[in-house]
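Service request form, structural biology core

Requester: graduate student, group of Dr. S.
Request type: structure prediction, single chain
Budget code: on file
Notes: please return the result as structure tokens.

Sequence provided:
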Amino acid sequence: MSAPLTHRRAGKLVALALTCALAPLRLDAVTMLELVTDSKLTPKRFAAHFENFEYEFHPEVQPPHVFLSTQSGDCDDYAILGEYVLKKRGFGTRLVRVSLVGRIAHDVCYVIQSKAYLDYNNRKYASTLEGSGRRLRQIATEVADSFHANWTTASEYTYDYDTEKKSIGQAVVKTDPPARDPDA
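Core staff response, request fulfilled:
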């Protein structure tokens, strides 16, 4: 015999039904647990999980479970998640934000061992990693070239999921002499 339907229980059922109806969860979505426990994870294998994701700009970084379950987001969602997961798997990574002339900035995750960066714009291509030197100036030049644009500044930053804050570290200004770059 089932429990009688009380107002409280009915409210919970309605809330659950609304949540299920409004949340565009994908059954084929990879989970954070699957990513961080994949013993064969490489940067290329990481990138392969995102080839069918859609671009959708968000002013703030999405929580990983939202980005993964909706399979939509933007460059900083992807770069920050890549940095977090690959670092957990033992890779050296750097989050880099490149300010482009006449456009908004673009974020990538540079993977030291691969001498390349993960770029959300390349998630649908066979070459999901873009080769680049390790210095901020080199990464910024490669990112800008992929947009057929010019860059003004490149910054390395960290992101804390708990506080949802980005913290800027080193920065390079294109017009400064390369010898003055903090990572020269």
